[in-house]
Write a structure and sequence with these properties.
By secondary structure, the chain is of the alpha/beta class. The chain folds into 2 domains: 113 residues, no CATH class; 291 residues, 3-Layer(aba) Sandwich (Rossmann fold). The chain has 16 helices and 11 strands. Strands 7-6-5-8-9-11-10 form a 7-stranded mixed β-sheet. Strands 2-1-3-4 form a 4-stranded mixed β-sheet. Helix 2 packs antiparallel against helix 3, helix 14 packs antiparallel against helix 16 and helix 15 packs across helix 16. The termini are far apart. Belongs to the CFA/CMAS family. This is Cyclopropane-fatty-acyl-phospholipid synthase family protein.
Length: 430
């Protein structure tokens, strides 16, 4: 009998205590669940074994990456339903557990084990970061983490990001394209930094060179860009040569902690500080402060999470850590601003632009889906599935205010002296 989907639906509802909001289609062709809802496709019983072995997000992620789980219909709608069902579920609203329910839970778990098929589960997908050891955020471990995420192929990133090759939040206005919005973001950063002809700019985490090229070409800055990704550096150097800007821009494969040729007039750090880590953030702030001349400015563009009542309870997202950004950590914007101040900076402006990142991510997902077959050919099916899921889920997280992104303008203000900003410093918003 083809009855796997009804059984799965009933078991899920028994174990979680609430109706399943998605329709389920199982490997035997059976379906169950609310008509018209997005369909969760369970292509193989191996997905259940993964979930039993690693309950929660990591088990789901492994099944998704392996292609054993999929969504048919609106991916965003499915993730919205799952967010309220699993990740954002209020434990206070869960039904009380009583002895009869305990027995039902035990019976449901036994039936799920039988339905999952032969034990043990398969090995994790090849795209998963293997077990790491040693302290976080050493130079060696950071280099490996950056390579995992960024050295997956420049052609793949160009497919997703578009010609701008900017892998951070764009700055949108009505009726703008992705390329126009990314150029607007780069120009906003340059204006906040007050760049002028001949200024020395350090671009920390320079990516594929887009910020460096814009600062040199539009503002006449002399730029040093540093990245830990060899593939990014090679791509950036070619773009710079093609633009005729090799006399103004130097790209280095170098850890920001090893930069010793200050002082700089300005530092841009766009989408890089998420890799620094909580334990190293004060060191990061100290290093950038030391690299700036008195009066020099830092523009720190960084994703933030919402603060928790108990900050000691913060846990890194298992899917992101295993498949997307190994060792990445998010902090509340207040904590970031406080550490910059502790390092000596004067924080002069904070602009929250989380809605802009949601729009950016949705455009990247459109790019990926429009050229799906090519994306799979450039990387692997699993890698393409990772990027689609993490970008769509991240867009919803920004929209739901679970995470945000902020531009912090900080100045190495001379002791007892002026900041160097005009009385109406927000004139850059135009």
């Amino acid at each position: 009998m083809a009855d796997a989907a009804p059984r799965l639906t009933r078991l899920a509802e028994d174990l979680l205590g609430v109706p399943l909001p998605l329709r389920v289609r199982a490997w035997d062709g059976s379906e169950a669940g609310p008509p018209g809802a997005p369909v969760l496709v369970v292509r193989h019983r191996r997905a259940l074994r993964r979930l039993l072995w690693k309950p929660g997000e990591l088990g789901l992620a492994r099944a998704w990456v392996a292609g054993e789980l999929d969504v048919e219909g609106d991916l965003y709608a499915a993730l919205e339903l799952l967010a309220g069902f699993l990740w954002e579920r209020d434990p206070d609203t869960a039904p009380a557990v009583h002895p009869l329910r305990d027995r039902r839970l035990r019976d449901a778990a036994r039936e799920l084990v039988r339905l999952a098929g032969p034990w043990p589960p398969p090995a994790p997908p090849a795209e998963e970061v293997r077990r790491r050891s040693g302290p976080l955020h050493t130079r060696t471990r950071d280099r490996a983490a950056i390579s995992h995420h960024y050295d997956v192929g420049n052609d793949f990133y160009r497919l997703v990001l578009g010609p701008s090759m900017v892998y951070s939040c764009a700055y949108w206005d009505e009726d703008t394209t992705l390329e126009e919005a990314q150029t607007a973001k780069l120009d906003l950063v340059c204006r906040k930094l007050g760049l002028r002809e001949g200024d020395r700019l350090l671009d920390v985490g320079c990516g594929w060179g887009s910020m460096a090229i814009h600062a040199a070409r539009a503002y006449g800055a002399r730029v040093v860009g540093v990245t830990l990704s060899g593939e990014q550096a090679a791509y950036a150097r070619k773009r710079i040569a093609d633009a005729g800007l090799t006399d103004r821009i130097e790209i280095r494969v170098q850890d920001y902690r090893d930069v010793r040729d200050g002082p700089y007039d300005a530092v841009s750090s766009i989408g890089m500080a998420e890799h620094v880590g909580a334990a190293r953030y004060r060191e990061y702030a100290d290093d950038l402060y030391a690299l700036l001349k008195p009066g020099g400015r830092l523009l720190n563009h960084q994703i933030a999470r919402r603060p928790l009542r108990d900050e000691g309870a913060y846990e890194v997202d298992e899917f992101i850590d295993a498949y997307v950004f190994p060792d990445g950590e998010l902090a509340p914007v207040g904590r970031t601003a406080g550490l910059l101040e502790e390092a000596g900076f004067e924080v002069r402006d904070v602009e929250a632009i989380r809605e802009h990142y949601a729009l950016t991510l949705r455009r990247w997902v459109v790019n990926l889906e429009a050229r799906w077959a090519e994306a799979v050919r450039l990387v692997t099916p699993g890698r393409a599935r990772i990027w689609r899921l993490y970008m769509a889920a991240s867009a919803l997280s920004f929209e739901r205010n679970r995470i945000g992104v902020n531009q912090i303008l900080a100045v190495r203000t001379p002791e007892g002296g002026p900041s160097g900003l005009s009385l109406r410093s927000r004139a850059w918003t135009g």
